[in-house]
Amino acid sequence: GHSQGGFFVPYYMGLHPDTVSGGVAHASGSWNWSKTPKELKKLALVFMHGSSDPVVPYGQSPGAREFYV
Known about the structure:
The protein has 69 residues and is α+β, with helices and mostly antiparallel strands. It has helices spanning 4-15, 60-68, and strands at 22-26, 44-48. Strands 1-2 form a two-stranded parallel ribbon.
């Protein structure tokens, strides 16, 4: 997912971890209401973001990554 679609990636994965094998959230982060079931820890979740993004603040992706680690 990209931008708003990227925010949807960890949200969906938290609701339905049994339907995916991983996800990539590009130029986003995660919503604070996204679920984090223990099954989510078994899945690959990547946050990709360019540090010069003029629209979405770069810090959202590293912050989301740290939360999920």
